[in-house]
Write a sequence for this structure.
């Protein structure tokens, strides 16, 4: 099984700043990439999907994909305390969705 | 519309016992996936079913099995439980085979 790597954190970001979360993957054949948010004690929820190189913006969230370098990133602009959560990177490999271990994000009020 | 529903939400078993976890997908979703999540880790892929056929299997022993029924609901069975099987078991559904998953609240299994 190919790997999906994330820095476990915690990543502490002041309120109002930009949070930058990174993810690398080992399977060069991966085609679909996803970011999930998981609050403590809750199940993951999908926040972004990206399928082609470049940037994809949705509100305060921007996903970035670089297939040549095999990395995916998520930017959160104007970070809010409610953004404090674990962010999971997920990659589709064949018929499997492989998750990273997640990065804990803490927004400092 | 109702989201993904899982039952039971919590259960306690002893080593060697067997457990069955149940999942009902979002109406119209034809794919169900099962994941195991232990504290501090990301979800680990166990199975994916689409249109009642197994379409993917993760690196779990044969003690783990699953099936999908004609109404697209699914069961995950774990035999001969070990202490290490204690985890949150997550079911997710999707319209088709994609990574855009909608998760249930999970079944928390404790093995004593």
């Amino acid at each position: 099984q190919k790997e999906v790597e994330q820095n476990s954190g915690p990543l502490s970001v002041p309120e109002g700043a930009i949070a930058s979360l990174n993810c690398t993957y080992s399977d060069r054949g991966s085609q679909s990439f996803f970011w999930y948010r998981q609050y403590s004690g809750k199940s993951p929820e999908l926040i972004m999907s990206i399928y082609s190189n470049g940037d994809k913006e949705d509100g305060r969230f921007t996903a970035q994909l670089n297939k040549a370098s095999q990395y995916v990133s998520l930017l959160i602009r104007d970070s809010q305390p409610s953004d404090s959560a674990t962010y999971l990177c997920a990659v589709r490999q064949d018929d499997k969705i492989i998750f990273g271990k997640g990065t804990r994000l803490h927004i400092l009020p | 519309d109702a989201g993904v529903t899982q039952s039971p939400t919590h259960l306690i078993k002893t080593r060697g016992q067997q457990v069955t976890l149940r999942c009902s997908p979002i109406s119209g979703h034809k794919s169900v996936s099962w994941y195991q999540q232990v504290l501090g880790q990301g979800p680990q892929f166990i199975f994916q079913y689409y249109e009642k056929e197994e379409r993917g299997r993760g690196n779990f022993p044969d003690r783990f099995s699953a099936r999908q029924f004609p109404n697209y609901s699914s069961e995950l069975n774990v035999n001969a439980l070990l202490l290490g099987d204690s985890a949150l078991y997550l079911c997710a559904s999707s319209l088709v085979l994609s990574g855009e998953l909608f998760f249930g609240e999970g079944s928390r299994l404790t093995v004593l």
In short: The CA atoms of residues 36 and 80 of chain B lie 17 Å apart.
